[in-house]
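call fold(seq) -> tokens
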Amino acid sequence: MRAETQLARAKINLSLHVTGQRADGYHLLDSLVVFADLGDLIRCTAADTVSLALTGPESVGLTVGDDNLVLRAARAFHLPKGAAITLDKRLPVASGIGGGSADAAATLVALSALWGLALPPAERVLALGADVPVCLAGRPSRMQGVGEVVTPLSHPLPPAHLVLVNPRVQVSTPMVFKGLARKDNPPMPQDLPPLNSVAELATFLTAQRNDLEPPALLAEPVIGRAKAALAAQTGCHLARMSGSGATCFGLFDSAEAASDAAIAIRQDYPHWWVQSAAMAR
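ret:
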């Protein structure tokens, strides 16, 4: 039986500037986005109707209701075709690394291949969520507007490795945006410079921000402990929160340094979700 499988890779906001707010309430963003080589797994098999099964260590608490992003992505094609979809959930839910958006994007790609159809138009993709277009692009990009402007980087990023740490708290994205001290913050530089090493990338990022980090820290102070645990590891060039939290990332030169850091943090915080991964280029 024909099937299509896609990896829904974790999305990391290396920077996230909130630069304004539209009259309809949507926030304007300027973000440098990369992806890790780990994530959820989407498998779509030919069937008479659309169905969704949930598996995986992070699937507890998820439901297969109509608001599930995977099912919404299937409906975005606006065609009465069927597929048995399985979501193997490996990324924490509501964690700032685009799990649901990445799942939706992977579902769109898998069903497009399975059904032999073009992807839905851009407005339907964006309607699934602000992060879905950049997750659909699946490569290091600059994301602007409300998520609809996705520009591939003109200069490739250097090989780098990440440690992802989630202290097992869920942060409400609307609450974090509501807690912003101001919503008209400066964007990143108009032209992003060539960055030829992890050290250069970290130096550039140090001059950038995640504007959602301060209100997220107020809501869940344990995020600060996750950042501090990463920053304390040998070889960590930068520790920062991704998205609206609560997952934080550390930036490392090598797989060995990242793996050692992940092991050390797991030993100190055995109940946290901790993973090392290469940064996809």
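The first strand starts at residue 3 and ends at 21.
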